Amino acid sequence: MAPLNVAMIGYGFMGKAHSNAFAQVGHFYPGVREVRRRVVCGRNRAGLEALARAWEWDEVETDWRHAVTRPDIDLVDICTPNYLHAEMAIAAAEAGKMVLCEKPLANNLAEAEAMAEAAARVPNFVWFNYRRVPAVVLARRLLEQGRLGRIYQYRAQYLQQWGPDPTRPRNWKMSKQTAGSGVNGDLNSHLIDTAMMLLGPIRELSATVETFLPEKADPANPGHTYRIDIDDAVLVQARFASGVLGSFEATRFATGYLNDNNFAVHGERGMLEFHFEDMNRIEYTDAGDDPEVRGRRKVVAPALGPPGDPHFWKTGHPIGYEHTFISSLADFLVGLESGDPARPTFEDGLAVQRVLEAVEASADQRRWVETGL
Ligand SMILES: NC(=O)c1ccc[n+]([C@@H]2O[C@H](COP(=O)([O-])OP(=O)(O)OC[C@H]3O[C@@H](n4cnc5c(N)ncnc54)[C@H](O)[C@@H]3O)[C@@H](O)[C@H]2O)c1
Does the CA dihedral 315-317-320-325 come out positive or negative? Predict the structure, then answer.
């Protein structure tokens, strides 16, 4: 079969993670359709050329609109700031291209709805890459097997610390216009996607958001400050449709934590706990163990893939952040061939966006709100 020609828009942090995934997927998943790094798009030609050299893209383009309509392009991959996702994804879908988009799907619910509608006509996928951490895959399998019995409670946190850092350059994540929200879209979106993958839809919630420093020093303009109109921290209590009680906490002001994306599931027969900073392991408690030895066991997550074909390395040989993107892409490519589309799709991204919107509404109105899911 002919290779899939990719146009990737954006060449920052995610541009690098995705370039690596496109380059590596065929090495670790040799059965999937070949992908070709055809063109990388952005606004700065010198920056684009540097990335294209490092990651072996055939060409660069400074006009994304042209790139997404090129007849030689099959798949458009969006790794730009959130406010650009809708315009780019809809243009790509209307041109008949497959569309992969970074999270959160959009700046707001209306945009996400328009994107899901436009992309319904083409294969589509959202890069909620934490779904593909092997320990998270194991947690999902154990829950599906009913190992924990009835689930009572789910607790999740996404903790970062860079919010108060006065040396941090001002960027698009610090403005509602370009990011849609602060930690709600940036970090809480990951928590909500993982939670709903594991335990189904969230029905209702009550939220509080906080902006600790409404004015920040601008390191590019010593002596000057700029105003912040996004949330620095968000606290959510929620009820899933299944009746499970949930709590979610996302913050950039958790001094002491670099990138701790964690969750715990508490059930009648046991408990599971995951921390991304220790991503190769999961903690498991079997409530049926003899009380004298009962406790949280740290279990090394098995390699993805069947025994003998572990995709990356054999169990016990740790993998990293980049592998979650390779596996996400592999899922998409496998889904393409099988006709059973890989999750998360734009519809899944839209469901997350409904929860994010409910968080904002609840915080504004200071009351519980239904998510509509
Ligand atoms: N899945 C994850 O773990 C994860 C992690 C970080 C970021 N993200 C998401 O990825 C997306 C990008 O984030 P990032 O951290 O890579 O940002 P970044 O600032 O590092 O890179 C953004 C890129 O978009 C380009 N860009 C900006 N405006 C553009 C325009 N008008 N036309 C073309 N290109 C333009 C910039 O030049 C840059 O290359 C965001 O949606 C973010 O939420 C996901």
Answer: negative
Model confidence band, residue 1 (pLDDT cutoffs 50, 70, 90): confident
For residues 322 and 279, is the Cβ–Cβ distance under 8 A?
Answer: no
Test site for ligand 1: of 8, 39, 102, most ligand atoms within 8 A of the Cβ: 102
Report the predicted TM-score, pTM, of the whole model to 2 decimal places.
0.97
pLDDT at 228: 92
Average pLDDT over residues 63-85: 97
- Three-state secondary structure along the chain? CCCEEEEEECCCHHHHHHHHHHHHHHHHCCCCCCEEEEEEECCCHHHHHHHHHHHCCCEEECCHHHHHHCCCCCEEEECCCHHHHHHHHHHHHHCCCEEEECCCCCCCHHHHHHHHHHHCCCCEEECCHHHHCHHHHHHHHHHHCCCCCCEEEEEEEEECCCCCCCCCCCCHHHCHHHHCCCHHHHHHHHHHHHHHHHHCCEEEEEEEEECCCCEEECCCCCCCEEECCCCCEEEEEEEECCCCEEEEEEECCCCCCCCEEEEEEEECCEEEEEEHHHCCEEEEEECCCCCCCCCCEEEECCCCCCCCCCCCCCCCCCCCHHHHHHHHHHHHHHHHHHCCCCCCCHHHHHHHHHHHHHHHHHHHHCCCEECCC
- Mean pLDDT over all residues of the chain? 97
Which of the listed residues 8, 11, 14 should we mutate to test ligand 1's pocket, taking the one with most ligand atoms within 8 A of CB?
14
Residue 104 CA to ligand 1 center (angstroms) comes to 11
Q: Pocket residues for ligand 1 (CB within 6 Å)?
A: 9-15, 41-43, 64, 79-82, 84, 102-103, 127, 129, 186
pLDDT, one tens digit per residue, over 123-135 is 999 999 999 999 9
- Residue ranges and CATH numbers for the domains of the chain are 4-129 (3.40.50.720), 134-317+344-370 (3.30.360.10)
pLDDT at 70: 97
How many other CB atoms are found less than 10 A from the CB of residue 211? 16
